[in-house]
Specification:
With 255 residues, this protein is mostly helical. The chain is 63% helix and 2% strand.
Length: 255
């Protein structure tokens, strides 16, 4: 009996010391994937027994959701911290969007219509044109948000900075540090950088998969961030066009 009790106690201790296995359900949930998900996600393993109080930072699959990571982390510290983080996030989004809309409407009314197109608008007409431009910019932003709703927000922010760098960075830097910069070079560099960045984004693999939902189709552009090509292309355009459009000043005029 003593030997039997020792064997039973040793087996019980071994059972306790063994690591507990996590139950994984490998059955496919459906034959189709949701928006923004690839079809292979339908057959990926699911987490079978997550703790009941743990924040659900997963979309039901073994893949974390990146967008709500900060709110879910704040929620794990309590409802008050979660409320503060959510309020700060909404305030940041609204402030950024309103500032961008005001800047875009002012650029359309003052820079494009009044200065570039030579329409000579009055102050009242500039205000009216700015209001119309703000509504148009907001509508375009809403449509783009609906189209790109299945993509990660941080990834879209990277694309926005890539487009802004391709259009604005060469013009700003060369105007400040290169005396031979001309207006024609600045204009064409902005057009080329913007067109190249948007074209590379629309033809990238990420857009084919998450926006066009062409899963399994190889995109013509293997890059997911266009800045490595569009920014140098914009710089080259500005330099070449500025050198070709230099004003020729005669010696007699200088004397």
């Amino acid at each position: 009996p003593a030997i039997t009790s020792k064997r039973s106690s040793s087996s019980a201790s071994l059972a306790k010391s063994r690591p507990r296995k996590v139950r994984i359900d490998r059955r496919p949930t459906s034959n189709t994937a949701g928006p923004g998900l690839d079809p292979s996600a339908a057959v990926r393993p699911r987490l079978g027994n997550l703790p009941s109080g743990a924040p659900r930072a997963f979309d039901g699959l073994l893949r974390p959701l990146d967008d709500p990571t900060a709110p879910l982390l704040a929620r794990s510290f309590g409802l008050a911290i979660f409320s503060i983080i959510s309020a700060l996030a909404f305030a940041t989004v609204l402030g950024t969007v309103s500032g961008l809309i005001v800047a875009a409407s002012g650029a359309v009314a003052h820079d494009i219509m009044d200065r570039f197109m030579g329409m000579n608008l009055t102050d009242h007409e500039k205000v009216a044109a700015g209001k119309i431009a703000s509504v148009a910019v907001g509508a375009i932003a809403i449509v783009l948000g609906i189209i790109f709703k299945g993509m990660n927000v941080s990834y879209l922010v990277g694309w926005a900075f890539a487009v802004a760098a391709s259009a604005n960075l060469p013009a700003i830097m060369m105007i400040l540090f290169w005396k031979k910069t001309t207006a024609q070079g600045v204009f064409l560099s902005i057009v080329v950088g913007l067109t190249a960045a948007l074209g590379l984004i629309l033809l990238s693999q990420e857009t084919f998969t998450n926006v066009y939902h062409l899963v399994g189709v190889k995109a013509p552009v293997p890059l997911n961030n266009p800045a490595i090509i569009s920014v140098p292309l914009s710089f080259m355009t500005l330099i070449i066009v500025s050198l070709l459009t230099q004003k020729k000043v005669s010696v007699a005029k200088i004397s």
